[in-house]
User: Which sequence fits this backbone?
């Protein structure tokens, strides 16, 4: 691939020779969701469905005609991500609340297709079969669009790769184009099939891919590329060409903002991923100030003394996600990890002396720890053959709570205590998706989110051993994620389904009691990530990465892209 890139002609982009493009901004009063816009062109090229943030702070699907016209929201698609179209253009598939869902474009009830704890793309053929990525380290799975039990159609080679995602059906409705990577092997597009046969490599790629008009489109080093491709023989036909640059994308998820309809209508956004600004808010949502320079921040965590911020930051060329530490007062930043693989989800030890983190440097996410300001070598906490992501450390420093990806039950909550014998202990392991577990201050309770009811809600249960006399209690009322305890243990914060920051008073003596949750403020949450906010120990200030919308992106739509020859 390096040879191909070196031989590319650096001339004017081919887009200029096509039909006049249309520009689609976000609807009035709204903004495109995420670090880079998520959208999909309909098969006939006449509509674009995009994820937007409404003024109330809720991510929802927005249907926009091409080239222009009044758009509209699709009811029932709150908290949607990564939309895709059915082959006949009558439905839109998307992910929300740990589920794969579908919505009729004409309106009507949104239906759940199946579980998808952390969806990373889907595709829908004319036989009403959907293939999708249900989780970060999962294989691709197929499921009837009417619903049913998903069946794996790829196998992730854990010795070389960590993820299969962003599937796209080829014209025969049987073969699939998908992205594979995040491991020791170079990231690439592969071709698989519904019968589960071994996938074959197609081209080195940093992002999702799509086929139309005799080309496979994909992102490579911030450039949208088009590889001539014979869909009948499944073979490449010459060297790729540059289509447009810079192409907007999110290096952390290997997703680029482009889509191609079956009639070769091409849509894309240009530029780099939008930066975020670390912003302080008080309990009523008033902005109190910012920290550091804008950047692609995720997974913020405050040190126990509130003086330092650990977070994931995507930076560099090529971009890479690592753990960084910021001074909460000055904003001065220092890099904690520098492995070429993804390092993310930092968690502070109770005394602030260590950082627990999760990394893909040895295959699926594994948990490591590092002495803050000390050794430069990360120590593996627990070796696992599946992904494990640290979410909290108990106040006595004994237990680590983590999310474990199980091949049968999906996301589950486990704990690990090295001084207690070193055996991992399942805490919540059900067919539902459980995540984001955090210990209470006294260590006797654990709060977490679960979609067992059909949507994410926040629950609290005893720890370490569930007591038959003390039942698990639901804290949220109309949806909730990302629980965090106040420093004195007398309140539990979480995010409501509409993104609002909520607070519930907690009493643990003589029995556990949770008050009715109250809304504090509408949070400008614009990313679906594991931890999108942090709170000071006194519960008075909230830190959030907020999208910088000073230069909002616009979706460019090129009708009937025909390649460099114009034929």
Assistant:
């Amino acid at each position: 691939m390096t040879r191909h890139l070196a031989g590319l002609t650096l001339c004017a982009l081919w887009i200029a020779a096509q039909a006049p493009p249309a520009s689609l901004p976000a609807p009035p009063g709204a903004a495109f969701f995420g670090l880079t816009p998520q959208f999909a062109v309909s098969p006939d090229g006449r509509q674009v469905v995009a994820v937007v943030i409404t003024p109330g702070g809720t991510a929802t699907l927005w249907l926009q005609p091409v080239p222009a016209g009044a758009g509209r929201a699709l009811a029932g698609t709150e908290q949607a991500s990564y939309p895709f179209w059915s082959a006949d253009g009558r439905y839109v598939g998307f992910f929300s609340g740990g589920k794969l869902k579908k919505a009729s474009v004409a309106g009507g009830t949104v239906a759940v297709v199946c579980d998808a704890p952390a969806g990373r793309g889907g595709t829908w053929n004319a036989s009403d079969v959907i293939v999708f990525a249900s989780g970060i380290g999962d294989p691709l799975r197929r499921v009837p669009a009417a619903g049913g039990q998903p069946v794996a159609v790829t196998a992730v080679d854990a010795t070389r790769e960590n993820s299969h995602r962003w599937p796209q059906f080829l014209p025969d409705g049987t073969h699939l184009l998908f992205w594979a990577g995040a491991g020791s092997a170079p990231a690439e597009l592969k071709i698989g099939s519904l019968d589960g046969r071994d996938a074959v490599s197609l081209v080195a790629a940093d992002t999702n891919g799509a086929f139309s008009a005799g080309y496979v489109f994909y992102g490579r080093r911030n450039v949208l590329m088009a590889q001539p491709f014979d869909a009948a023989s499944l073979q490449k036909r010459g060297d790729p060409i540059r289509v447009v640059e810079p192409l907007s994308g999110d290096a952390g998820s290997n997703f680029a903002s482009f889509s191609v309809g079956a009639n070769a209508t091409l849509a894309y956004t240009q530029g780099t991923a939008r930066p975020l600004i670390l912003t302080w808010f008080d309990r009523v949502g008033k902005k109190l100030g910012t920290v550091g320079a804008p950047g692609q921040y995720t997974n913020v965590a405050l040190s126990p003394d509130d003086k330092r911020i650990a977070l994931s930051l995507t930076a560099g060329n090529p971009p890479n996600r690592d753990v960084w530490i910021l001074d909460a007062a000055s904003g001065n930043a220092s890099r904690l990890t520098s492995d070429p693989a993804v390092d993310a989800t930092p968690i502070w030890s109770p005394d602030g002396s260590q950082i627990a983190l999760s990394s893909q440097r040895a295959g699926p996410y594994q948990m490591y720890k590092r002495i803050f300001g000390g050794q430069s070598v990360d120590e593996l906490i627990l070796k696992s053959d599946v992904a494990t992501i640290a979410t909290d450390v108990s106040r006595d420093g004994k237990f680590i709570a983590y999310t474990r990806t199980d091949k049968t039950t999906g996301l589950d909550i486990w704990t690990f205590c090295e001084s207690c014998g070193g055996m991992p202990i399942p805490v919540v392991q059900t067919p539902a998706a459980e995540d984001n577990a955090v210990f209470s201050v006294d260590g006797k309770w654990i709060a977490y989110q679960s979609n067992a009811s059909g949507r994410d809600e926040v629950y609290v249960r005893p720890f370490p051993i569930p007591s038959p006399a003390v039942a698990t209690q639901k804290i949220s009322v109309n949806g909730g994620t990302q629980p965090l305890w106040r420093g004195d243990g007398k309140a539990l914060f979480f995010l409501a389904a509409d993104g609002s920051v909520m607070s519930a008073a907690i009493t643990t003596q003589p029995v556990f009691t949770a008050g009715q949750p109250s809304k504090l403020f509408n949070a400008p949450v614009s990313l679906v990530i594991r931890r999108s906010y942090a709170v000071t120990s006194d519960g008075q200030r909230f830190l959030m990465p907020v999208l910088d919308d000073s230069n909002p992106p616009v979706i460019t739509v090129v009708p009937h892209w025909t390649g460099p020859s114009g034929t």
